[in-house]
Sequence to fold (328 residues):
Amino acid sequence: MTQRIIFTGQRQCALESVAPAPITDTAVRVKTLVSLVSTGTELICFNRNFAPGSHWDNWIKYPFTPGYSLIGQVTHVGAKVQQFRVGDRVAARLAHASEVVADAGDFFPVPAEMDSKMAAWFALAKIAGVGALAAQYVLGDSVLVIGAGPIGQMSVRWAKAAGATTIICVDTLGARLALAQAGGATAVVAGAINQMEAEILAANGGRRPRVVIDSTGHAAVFSAALAMAADRGRVVLLGDTGFPDQQHLTKDVIVRGLTVVGAHDGHVDVLTNAAGAGMFFKLAVSGQFNLAGLNTHTFRPDQCQQAYETIDAQREKTMGVLFDWTVI
Fold:
């Protein structure tokens, strides 16, 4: 039987057994090694922290299968599959489960040099990569990343890889900021964004940064993000709020000529899952993406309720949270 994690209701998580999916000629069956929790997205789903009638509300129906970032090993290949063999290690944008079956094109090879627990960051890196492309970075850019959670961490690393020379990261949870510095932030600021203007300006030579990345998904951050962008600057909404009606434009947009652009995982015309994974793996293997220290917690799949409750209660202590499927 296949084991999978499901949300059975608000703040209710379980591990259930389902019949294994059949394999077709073009499909691959993979035994999962680890899967990484997208702590921002999955906690919103777990808590139902969104407005009624929002796109989140239309998406989260029970039973709901969370997760979209797993690393596994191929156990069976369909008769027409050419690119994979039994034993290959692969990545997939599929839900938390002990094994998965999908079309071969939904899997991406994992470099031999990469540890599976670090490789599992590929999906969050791809999401942040969509934001990096929306930012339209130029060499020597100045960037402010709001939020040092998993997406913010990846956003810092993309900005560094793109050639930004000033990368400021701000978060109310100061414990997260050391990881941002390790990933390439040139300055970090602990505090609420709407109270840290002086510190942010000081970190950029008295100027507002040209690019502001809001990775938080908190509606109230939007107006502060607009205020911190340079004239004719660019604000990228990368965090997807559950309360979009609470996001409000300010006079900064027109008076100072700002560009506001949304970036979302679903924008596969901007960056496909395969391309995003490929770039992440190359940057990680080459050392340009420093991933050391990002994984903080590992749980057995049957500890899923505890895992999500821990993420919710200890946000300042959790970053990369993994399910280890080799123990079942």
